[in-house]
Amino acid sequence: MPDFGGSFGKVIVKAKLQKLIGLRAILPVATLRLLETDFSLRDSDQKIVVKGHLTQSMGGDQPTCYCTLRALRGYSKFHTRAAQILEPLIKAKIKDFGLKCLLEAQDLEVFKSKQGNSVLLLTVAMQAEPAVRSIALAMLDQAERHVRGVIADTDTEFLHQFRVNVRKLRSLISLLKKALPTTLIDTLKPKLSLIAGKTNKLRDLDVLILAHESYRTMLPANFESGLNKLYGLIEKQRKQEKNKVARYLSSKDYKATIASCAAEFSLNSVFETAMASKSIARVVKKLILKRYHKMLAMCQGISCQSPDQNIHALRIEFKKLRYLIEFFVDLLPKKRIVKIVGEIKKIQTILGDYNDYGVQIGILNGYVDDALVDMSNSLSGLIAILHQKKIEKRSKVESAIADFFTENMTNEFNLVFGIRKTKGLG
Amino acid sequence: MRVIASYSMKGGVGKTATSVNLAYWAAKSGSKTLLIDLDPQGASSYYFRVRPSTKKWAKRFFKAYENLVTHIKASDFENLDVIPAHLSFRNFDSLLAGFKKRKNRLRRVLKGFDKEYDLVILDCPPSISHLSESIFIASDVLLVPVIPTTLSERTFEQLMIFFKENDYPQNKIVPFFSMVQNQKSLHKETMRAMSARYKIFLKTTIPYSSDIEKMGIHKAPVDVFAKSKQANHAYRQLWEEVSKIE
Known about the structure:
The complex is a heterodimer of chains A (426) and B (246). Chain A has 426 residues and is mainly α. In chain A, 64% of the residues lie in helices and 6% in strands. Chain A starts with 10 loop residues before the first helix and ends in a 9-residue tail after the last helix. Chain B has a seven-stranded mixed beta sheet with strand order 3-4-2-5-1-6-7, sandwiched between helices. The model of chain B has no long low-confidence stretch (mean pLDDT 92). The chains are: A mainly alpha (426), B alpha/beta (246).
């Protein structure tokens, strides 16, 4: 089985797969042993009147036999008759029989994991502490699902998703720290921070590698040898860093840390704080509204003169706000939330792009080495171009902020997340 | 959708064998094909083991395409359907005589199949009649099997003259030599002379072969029971050549 969509030979398949999977690799998720036979039923003239197909699936303890009958034009009565004869032998009729149905019958992990979050049933009346604990456990589980892919270096998305889930978990306990016991926060915060920190450098290197092609097209051809030297170095560093991360994620230390995090979150709620026993829906709504107003105040101070740190701080706030909404999306009015999240995503893209230029410039700057002239020339060229792009993006940042923080948006947040006195909340 | 008619006013020249094997190869090459057996003897339907409905329906044949659709039957082969002949088709001529604009009838009725089929093959009865004229108008290619004998040469000449006199486009006529026996000098000589006179003969020739006759025993196209035989290669080649006609 080829690894990436890009390695498939046929151009059409390649393009279609690439679109579907992006940076992801294709991994085997199941092995099916199938025995397949075509058969036909004939009348007294030896004319085929019904065509059929038998599929025997050899997975599991006992083989399962699937029979498909196909009616032929002008011979439908034979098809009806054949179906009648087979009826007593049939356990169940299947609509849309195919590979998907065969795989689903195998009780595969891959189909279960898709349900992921929806298994977690949050209710409006649920108390804050148990709700946060169960979401935290789910996040931890999600992060863990990516570890094998990081160690095997299957694709860069495994590390990225691992980091996203760890980041979300950290955000969750930081945003809702008042719903959890202080000791839990104090124990887990540094542990999670350590895990995230261990993977920072590898992610930076991945980002550089993913940008290779776009950097190559930015520079004139005579800068290519310098760029190649840079990438030779980056590839080498990445290999070392990947081994380092893989060693860490396979270590007893890491496993013990994750196990202790899971154990902490699994403990029964102690309701140490006032917020712990309040309705999670109420707590979250209040929190979202509070954060929105905090961001509204923050954006008042942002102008074309403001330093990048202020933009960065606002970007982080948007990230937290979106996480908060997404964690508890089941408790919020769906239609309105979809619209709000759509608007948040839009501004996040602009703020993210702006920030990425800054980050890339910072990382590339670290590679400038006076002893390697042509590599440093290429780096200077890239930095100049990225700097220019960043300046161009800046005006978009201001207009995106103005477009987002409108009176309408404030009204919408007040309406959706404002607490109304309703029975049962609280 | 293309319409190919296997036609000759002479009987026993290999029209049905041509229709059956061509339809088979067309379907096998991926063209959604409908074979319409217009010959009341129903030989091509027989070769595909398809029986007609018991009702007489010749009267409804030219009314509308919807009438034809209900008589379509799947053959044993993918992409290939058949409208079997019915003995009542022998009355086609007197039926057509009663219609206004009879020459366009078949063309109009076949138009309905445009969406479902890439190719319609008409297996025609041996005559020159109202039905034949409808066929001349309805088809894009009139594939004419010619046995290289004096009598066949004469029949072919008559067809060419008929087309000329009645202003039918002669370029629809695509003849090929059928039931060829290369050991006969008469066959060789006739083929040479006719090819020189009419530059429109296809390169492929169909040999006289007992394998083609055996289609009746096997009730199947030649490829099914005589895969590696010369006759089978010839039909395959014939389809390849016919499919390239512009």
